[in-house]
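Form P-L/3: holo structure prediction, ligand inosinic acid.
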Amino acid sequence: MNKAVIGLQWGDEGKGKIVDFISEDFDLVVRYQGGNNAGHTVIVDDDTYKLNLIPSGVIRGKKCFLGQGVVLDPNHFYTEYNQIRKKIDDPKIYLSSNISLILEYHKQLDIINESILNSEKKIGTTSKGIGPAYQDKVGRKSIKLYDLKSRNRIEEKLYSIKKFYDPILDSFNESKINVDQTVSDLLNFYDSVKELIVDNSLIKKEFKNKKILFEGAQGALLDLDHGSYPYVTSSNTVSSNIVIGSALQVEYITVGIFKAYSTRVGNGPFPSELFDDIGNYIAEKGLEIGTVTKRKRRCGWLDLVSLKYSCEINRVKELCMTKADVLNDLSEIKLCKSYNSNKYENINFSESDILESLSLVDSDFEVFQSWGNFNDLNKFETLPDNLKKYITYIEDYLNIPIKIISLGPERNQTIIR
Ligand code: IMP
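OUTPUT (holo model):
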């Protein structure tokens, strides 16, 4: 059966490692949304792979497809593709011809958008031009990969884009759109990657009845519609966007992935956030630094209330928990089980102001005693009892089994149940 690996929190759940780990059984790995705002680090033996756009399946030599729901920065893609070519023999990557491009002016607009907000209202974007690129897609202005076949087509589109955006760029003292330079860059880019560009119909045909793994980017709580708007990314991160973003009309099982604690980069509500030494300790021990922006991630206890919501909106059938080992040395570990005694049925997760104003009380948390250090990373049965209690509590609360437990960055630090 096809599978989708979807982040259930605010991104950075460890999707890269898990996609790499399970991709062995699949024929094609697909990204269907987001762009190079995502960051995946995968460690295999002595090699560390850092990927932003290309699915982690590429490391196992799997064929990878970037679907039409992705926004693609040509410069970034070209650099990442060349880096991967140095490490992997003949990587097989397909780009949907229907992908919308991120151009220089999108990054300028991303920065302008943030600069006009008061500091407490800033989104804290990755500045990669993601929001403005999706704005152009919805506004029917995007330059698509298929446009790159024709100089005239690029020029025609760019001149109207220039008319629209130059006054804004100019009023913020940003350089205006340089049509000649952009056209020449795009034509060069097209020359270098044209063999990778395919029609959706070709992928559909070639991978009919093959096993497909979908790799989500960001997390469900950053979803444009289901997340805490406006503190969200500009795409639908939930699994129901898979069919649209990949143009592959197939069935799949959703594997929801979460960290044993919570992190968030950028602004927005985070009810179980820790502002004390424990939060700092988790950030340091868990190496919670943004892969894309190098910002320190905000840390907090695992939030079962929002996790239950994420499981529901993604129709999650199986779970994967990562990084419980980061909590080994803590004397007490807490799980957030309600917001001021409210269960998730009563909470509107897309209304930021309400979530921001929450102030959780002791009875909102279930407390677990330390599980200490352990060495045996291969069997659930030999895990410390307190960790098993933690896992069982989560499964009971969510009523979904945790089938994969990842306890370190290496492939062999993974338990399958
Ligand atoms: P954007 O996607 O760059 O527009 O940023 C919007 C919000 O999503 C910001 O809070 C970012 O920090 C967050 N974000 C975007 N991509 C990721 C990711 O891959 N991991 C974690 N947070 C992300």
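COMMENT: Residues 151-171 form the longest helix (21 residues).
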